Input
Amino acid sequence: MKSARLIGLAALALSAPAVAQVTLNASSWLPPAHALTSAMLLPLCQDIAKVTSGRVKCNVLPKHPVAPPQTFDAVRDGVFDLSFATHGFNPGRFPLTELVEMPFMGDTAEATSVAYQRIFERFLAKYDEQKGVVPISMFTHGPGVIYTTKRPINELKDLQGLKFRVGGGTVSDIMTALGTVPMLKPPSEAYELLSSGVADGVVLPKESPGTFKLISLIKYTTLVPGGLYSQSFAWILNTAKWNAIPPADRKLIEPLFGEAMARRSGRAWDTADEKGLAATRAANIQVITAGPKFVAEIRARTEPLEKAWIENKAKPKGVDGAAVLKALRDEIAKVTKEDKLGGIR
Output
């Protein structure tokens, strides 16, 4: 009887998993079809499960438990474990992230995101603005675009006095500098604002008109070479949950983070942008590309924002803002060249 019991216990031990399973509660406040959810978060979760042979997996929540601006704190406090933070939704809290939101940063989300992650690691991570969470990766959306309902935007004077929905962060200051009246609202409210006439336009990346069902409302689109602005995001993970993952599995997961996740995110956004611009053109919405005069006007109006960031936000933290901005732009140019040559794909 005793030997039978020992054999049974041995069989049970052999059948038990070698490592306890860890479940990451993941969440996105954007719809399931949005690239942030479908082409970034879900594939990351799938890869985490794959590299750990299912020992670490995600439980994607059916509904985001908090308002979008509360996401960072919710991950920090363990309301859920994995999501993305939109830095501009918390004005003044992440001042160093604002450097990537300046005009004319780049024409693709992939190049800007990869460069941003490299500059974050090289210069900014040590200042710990993402304190309380594990910053998986920094990234941006594609170049910001001007969408209007009343009139086409060909030059600075066309913007004067128009009311624009903006997403927070530096873009609000940009639109103020350009003579508009910005309204800080999430993109999910853009349809109501435009359809009711409360807003005359929105500034969003190219994918957004299709995503947020704005195609029937907008009449004019103005593309700005290099982008009117970018939005800073971070993929973040609850620290306690990360530490609960066995070291061997953390080692397997880590290659999915950092630059790899920045590239995945940027590339997915660029794909969504291509589809969004195609949908805009297919709807016969007028698409304008800002000419040299308009670009020069935007540059003249927004250059003081860069100087203000250098003096009032970077310098007080001991950051050489001018040098970091130059390094970021140089890195974006470098990544853009690498990608065109097929050097890093």
